[in-house]
TrEMBL record:
<keyword id="KW-0813">Transport</keyword>
<feature type="domain" description="Cyclic nucleotide-binding">
    <location>
        <begin position="708"/>
        <end position="822"/>
    </location>
</feature>
<keyword id="KW-1133">Transmembrane helix</keyword>
<dbReference type="InterPro" id="IPR000595">
    <property type="entry name" value="cNMP-bd_dom"/>
</dbReference>
<feature type="transmembrane region" description="Helical">
    <location>
        <begin position="70"/>
        <end position="89"/>
    </location>
</feature>
<feature type="transmembrane region" description="Helical">
    <location>
        <begin position="392"/>
        <end position="416"/>
    </location>
</feature>
<feature type="transmembrane region" description="Helical">
    <location>
        <begin position="101"/>
        <end position="122"/>
    </location>
</feature>
<keyword id="KW-0915">Sodium</keyword>
<protein>
    <submittedName>
        <fullName>Cyclic nucleotide-binding domain-containing protein</fullName>
    </submittedName>
</protein>
<dbReference type="InterPro" id="IPR006153">
    <property type="entry name" value="Cation/H_exchanger_TM"/>
</dbReference>
<feature type="transmembrane region" description="Helical">
    <location>
        <begin position="244"/>
        <end position="271"/>
    </location>
</feature>
<dbReference type="InterPro" id="IPR018490">
    <property type="entry name" value="cNMP-bd_dom_sf"/>
</dbReference>
<keyword id="KW-0472">Membrane</keyword>
<feature type="transmembrane region" description="Helical">
    <location>
        <begin position="320"/>
        <end position="341"/>
    </location>
</feature>
<keyword id="KW-0406">Ion transport</keyword>
<feature type="transmembrane region" description="Helical">
    <location>
        <begin position="6"/>
        <end position="24"/>
    </location>
</feature>
<feature type="transmembrane region" description="Helical">
    <location>
        <begin position="291"/>
        <end position="308"/>
    </location>
</feature>
Length: 837
């Protein structure tokens, strides 16, 4: 085929892609539907010109279009990895993890249910073997929720709902393609009725092998990319190679799911690369992948649509009945998940509440597209699949895809309108009025400064200022006097605005690099939780999200367990350092929010709401300060190192700004500016490195804090440090129970504990010890000991404690004082002093 003609055809397809998006917006139909329709029209037109006698002038072009090397491998090995990989890079994974249950239900359970429902329905009404029916079910189970997601975004649907649908779109294809490979093997081997249990038992192995392959490939890629820290193009090139190599290795060498490998590689890169790569390099890398995915997604739709006339050439009247069976079974299976299982998960508090109208929109928005056609094409290309199965697979998959695109896709927006999802709720209406009022106030201030700078005619300025002021007064009055908004809703609106401003401030600090790239996603995710909490549950939701940002989560508790039981300090050190930096970042942001409350929210919602928000903000600041102080007590000096790092990053940002200003003013030339900026970049890279926190080495610092060990020499301190074991206890955890055997003495390095016995309560803090009296009196413990704050303990066994007691006068005095407080004679329990080592 003439290469010039093929190049012309491909370039023309890009012109079609460019025209499709504005056309879809004008016709108010999903973008994918327009692409599919254009592809069908192009293929039908090419076929018409080849078969007509009207003219032969367009035959070369028609032959080039129909002769494009469109094979299933092109879709699966070229386009699909690009789409999946970009989707993982564009996701906020920390927010996805909050909703992992509904995402997995829609993406995996729904695929399995749809495959089985469609497969058994076809087996019941047709003469096809069960393996072929299940293969068809797996092929048509791949949904393309991009249409419903884009519409949900345009109608301001809850962010959480859109995020769940995006998560489904990522994992849905992976699960369906894994099932496709499973049943395709049975069909090619001629197994008519596969053992379903054995077939599904292989499914987890395909997923596990693909996940391990993708994780290892991404970790290796990040390590190599970090070595090329100053070579952005090299980093980008490695990222382009990653999904394709992971896919090929998993499919051809490991024998696992290549799709799962690509998804795992993208998720791993998304989680680890921001902390290892320069922020600008990471941002540019994601922008490149956005462009690649846009092209790949559009091309895969158009090229797949070109195949539709070919796949439908042998359609028969009886096939339409089978297509109807597939449509009904697919919709019924998805309805069971959305209206049966999802409400059950909500009752079990494993999934957010998804209102019935939204579930109906998701049901009707389950469009099929290019992946379904690509899998069908793979079946029709296989010489090991019988001809009658090839024909039916191609026709049923294509017919069902056309139904979803032409019927569901074109009516989806109408359905959403009938469900009332395109209308703002009263609180959203009020929020929009608030936004207008706040925006107009900002505009008035900016316009006033601009008119002063340009020295415009005073009468003209005064006239326009009066008109603008009238509009502003009207907007503020509408925001204040909304009759359908209750007082509690005004508080909710204020909290949403405050959380939104917090998110904007965080993004500005990230751009300025005051907040490190490692912490950017974390603090933005916390701000998103505040917004969603305020929007869904008002003040209670906001406070719950605020408390969550400072508490010790399950991952931290697991790291404490690993450190305490197995001596693995790496996860605890990393999470503790992350917590330090997160709290410092939150403190930086929260201190800037008071001006927003006083300057904006007070104008619109009044003094009472502003004072309430100020009180909530003060509580948040106190909580962050308390948590930060606990860490400072636990790890002396580390917070200071982080603060020094923050100052260095801030100074570098200011220095960079000065060089840019000097270049714009013509004080320095391009060569000098480039050299200075390269020097700043090198120092910024060094400043991004976070100081290392080694929790295993903190014992020496802890020991030196205790007055009871002050008289020990360096040798004795080192021996004591080796004997002490560090134990981390979460707030509320009971570490010792009444009547338990006494085998250890505990020294409080940081935090606080509460001792309760016989109705009396004692509280001990930093520098205190407990457990010694039970050992010296040879009795079982008489108190329950519970941590009332995150606490670090130094634990000394009984034998070493008795030896130390005989050598340390300060320790003997402390024990004697503790005995006197309990009404015990010190001489009755203290051993005779020994000579020091």
């Amino acid at each position: 085929m003439d290469i010039i003609l093929v190049t012309t055809v491909i370039a023309s397809l890009f012109l079609v892609i460019g025209a499709a998006e504005p056309l879809a917006a004008r016709l108010r139909v999903p973008y994918s539907v327009i692409l599919a329709l254009l592809g069908i029209l192009i293929a039908a037109g090419a076929t018409f010109f080849l078969r007509t006698d009207l003219t032969d002038a367009l035959n070369p072009v028609a032959e080039a279009i129909l002769g494009l090397p469109i094979r299933s491998n092109v879709f699966l090995y070229v386009f699909l990895p690009t789409l999946l990989f970009q989707a993982t890079l564009g996701m906020n994974l920390r927010r996805m993890l909050d909703d992992w249950v509904p995402i997995l239900v829609l993406a995996v359970v729904a695929v399995v249910v749809a495959t089985l429902s469609i497969g058994y329905a076809l087996a019941w009404v047709s003469a096809l073997p069960l393996a072929a029916c299940l293969l068809i079910g797996a092929i048509v189970s791949t949904t393309d929720p991009s249409a419903v997601v884009s519409i949900f975004r345009s109608i301001s649907a809850p962010r959480r709902l859109a995020r769940i649908i995006e998560g489904e779109s990522l994992l849905n294809d992976a699960a369906a393609i894994a099932l496709f490979g499973l049943f395709m093997g049975f069909v090619m081997l001629g197994v008519p009725d596969p053992e379903l249990g054995a077939a599904l038992a292989r499914f987890p192995m395909l997923i596990a092998g693909g996940a391990a392959t993708g994780w290892f490939a991404a970790r290796l890629a990040v390590w190599v990319m970090a070595m090329f820290n100053r070579h952005e193009l090299a980093q980008t090139s490695i990222s382009v190679a990653l999904p394709y190599l992971a896919y090929i290795v998993a499919e051809q060498i490991i024998g696992a799911s290549g799709v799962i490998a690509v998804v795992a590689a993208g998720l791993t890169l998304n989680l680890t690369a921001p902390g290892r790569l320069p922020p600008q390099s990471w941002a540019n890398l994601r922008e490149l992948w956005d462009v690649l995915a846009h092209w790949a997604g559009a091309l895969i739709f158009i090229l797949a649509a070109l195949l539709i006339p070919r796949l439908l050439e042998e359609v028969r009247w009886g096939d339409f009945a089978l297509i109807g069976v597939v449509v009904l079974a697919a919709i019924a299976a998805r309805a069971v998940i959305l209206f049966g299982l999802m409400p059950l998960l909500t009752l079990m508090r494993l999934s957010p509440m998804v209102e019935r109208p939204y579930r109906a929109a998701i049901l009707w928005g389950g469009l099929r597209g290019a992946v379904t056609l690509a899998l069908a094409l793979a079946v029709t290309e296989s010489v090991r699949v019988p001809g009658d199965i090839q024909r039916l697979v191609g026709i049923l998959a294509t017919g069902f895809t056309l139904f979803t695109l032409l019927v569901q896709g074109t009516t989806l927006r109408w359905i959403i309108g009938r469900l009332g999802l395109d209308r703002l709720s009263p609180i959203d209406e009020a929020l929009s009025r608030q936004v207008v009022a706040v925006a107009l106030q900002t505009v008035r201030e900016d316009v006033a400064r601009t008119t002063e700078n340009y020295e415009l005619n005073r009468d003209t300025v005064r006239s326009e200022a009066k008109r603008f002021g009238e509009r502003l007064d009207l907007a503020v009055k509408q925001a204040e006097d909304s009759a359908d908004i209750l007082d509690r809703d005004r508080i909710t609106l204020g909290l949403i605005a405050l959380a939104g401003h917090e998110r904007d401030t965080i993004l500005a600090r990230v751009r300025e690099r005051t907040i490190s790239a490692r912490m950017a996603d974390v603090v933005v995710s916390e701000a998103d939780r505040l917004i969603e909490g305020a929007r869904t549950q008002g003040r209670n939701g906001y406070q719950r999200a605020a408390r969550r940002s400072v508490v010790y989560g399950p991952a931290f508790r697991a790291a404490v367990l690993l450190h305490g039981r197995l001596g693995l300090s790496g996860p605890l050190a990393r999470l503790t350092a992350d917590r330090f930096e997160l709290l410092l970042s939150q403190r930086l942001i929260l201190r800037d929010l008071g001006a927003f409350i006083d300057g904006r929210i007070r104008r619109i919602h009044g003094r009472r709401v502003a004072d309430l928000l100020r009180d909530l903000l003060t509580r948040r600041i106190d909580g962050v300060e308390t948590a930060l102080e606990a860490l400072r007590l636990q790890y002396p000096g580390y917070a200071e190192e982080l603060e020094r790092r923050f100052i260095r990053r801030t100074a570098l940002r200011m220095e960079e700004r000065e060089y840019i200003t000097m270049r714009e003013d013509g004080l320095i030339g391009a060569e000098v500016h480039t050299a200075l900026m390269q020097d700043v970049a090198a120092r910024r890279t060094a400043a991004e490195d976070r100081p290392r926190l080694d929790v295993a080495l903190q014992r020496a610092a802890f020991v030196q804090q205790f007055p009871v060990f002050a008289e020990l020499d360096d040798g004795a301190l080192k021996r004591l440090g080796r004997s002490l074991r560090t134990r981390y206890v979460n707030a509320g955890e009971v570490m010792l129970h009444k009547d338990s055997a006494a085998r250890q003495v505990f020294f409080i390095a940081s935090g606080a504990v509460e001792l309760e016995t016989a109705g009396q309560v004692w509280r001990l803090g930093r520098g205190d010890m407990f457990g010694q009296m039970a050992i010296l009196t040879n009795r079982a413990r008489r108190a329950n000991v519970r941590a009332i704050a995150p606490t670090t303990l130094l634990v000394l066994d009984e034998d070493r404690f008795r030896q130390l007691l005989g050598r340390s006068k300060a320790l003997r005095n402390a024990v004697a004082a503790s005995a006197v407080a309990r009404g015990i004679e010190p001489e009755a329990i203290l051993p005779a002093p020994k000579d020091r080592d």
